[in-house]
Amino acid sequence: MKTYYIESLGCAKNLVDSEVFAYILESAGYTPAEDSEHAELILVNSCAFLQSALAEFDQVLCSFIELKHDSLKTLVVSGCVMNRAAEEFQELFPEVDAWIGLKDFDALKTFLHQENTVRNDRSPLQETSYAYLRISDGCQNYCSYCTIPSIRGELKSVPIEQLVEEARNLIARGALEIILIAQDSCQYGLDLYGKRALPELIEAIHALEGYKWLRILYLHPDHFQIEWLELFKRLPKLLPYFELPIQHSEDRILKLMNRKKGRKELTELFTTILREIPEAVLRTTLITGFPSETEAEHQALLSFIEEIPFLALGCFCYSPEPGTPAYDMDAQIDEELAEQRQNEILGLHNKLLEARLGALVGKPMEVLIEEELDRDSEDESITDYIGRTWFQAPDIDGQVIVRAGHLIPGQFALLEIEDVIDSDLFASEKDI
């Protein structure tokens, strides 16, 4: 029996491609291996967004090359590296049997001697209660620090009817949460329909039955439309979870980043969302140490975090990427200083988060149970579980640790929040 293993690096958008590759491999007679050491074929779907991602890819590939001297017969590479550093890695790793272009599913079929008529469906790489639905690929924002347009190309939206069919299939496979993803979800449909068609897509996906939560990620703040808030008020499955990655708060830095909204406009956007939808949760991402960022601008960013109640926040040090405009900017910031500023931002947010999440203690909360852990050694009637509540997106936010009697993964349970540690909630069964 032929076995395969896929190492999917990078973001959830890459995971979608990996699941298509998995479907093609299974259509060619391969079955999933327990792990990489038991696979005859390994496919590495690479990320090349940052220099750190290229370093990770290099490390992963080295470990799989070692398996080539043992049980591994075939090693295949695909993903973003093919549009950024393919020649360099091809020279370094001649042991790789096939280098498949980014999203070139037909090339994998050809390598496997398979007919190109095999459809590009998806085989989930892990059993989860959620599924990602990539609504578009590519980007035309050209942020000055970002390599995405040169790697993934211009915006290319997937037609609504095709996305509805894919979502229907994901729900049939057990997805209780559908998560819409893209490089910039707000721009969905501009290339296909000549307008931002995210509202029409949301309506169509929301109309499907058999699932409970609909979440949208990667809402670019420059393109988010206030009139869309009506959808979040009217559609019960559409979670009022607003991930709006601003990267910074100060006008000069934002202009250098090629972002359009400044501090005043961003403040107005967030305050409007919270005024219109008081239960809304805000999430953002920030970059510290962008070229020429001053201490005053860093302090102003800290004050912005205190002003806007972000429940979730990611913060990353600026990474100088060759080929981007920011790479050639003057006054590059020392890496150590960028890390110091990152730590200050994360420290402040963690302090604020403790109070914001602490307000939930003693309150009932609906939790989606996702995983069963070990039984209590002293009381076998009690089991620990891991779950999520509606404002916790998979992998990027916290989770809920649950102590309860008998719950089932995939079940929604009404539980009482007992404690908070960092971004994680602790809950148990109570008389609610």
Explain what this protein looks like in three dimensions.
- With 432 residues, the protein is an alpha/beta fold.
- The chain is 33% helix and 22% strand.
- The protein folds into three domains: 3-111, Rossmann fold; 130-358, tm_1862 like domain (pyruvate-formate lyase- activating enzyme); 364-428, OB fold (Dihydrolipoamide Acetyltransferase, E2P).
- It has helices spanning 12-27, 51-67, 86-92, 105-111, 148-152, 160-172, 190-193, 198-206, 229-234, 251-256, 263-276, 295-307, 335-358; strands at 3-8, 31-32, 41-46, 74-79, 98-99, 130-134, 136-137, 156-157, 177-181, 213-216, 241-243, 281-288, 312-317, 364-375, 383-388, 400-404, 412-421, 424-428.
- It has a five-stranded parallel β-sheet with strand order 2-1-3-4-5, sandwiched between helices. It has a five-stranded mixed beta barrel with strand order 14-15-16-18-17. Strands 6-9-10 form a three-stranded parallel β-sheet.
- The N and C termini lie far apart (51 Å).
- The model has no long low-confidence stretch (mean pLDDT 92).
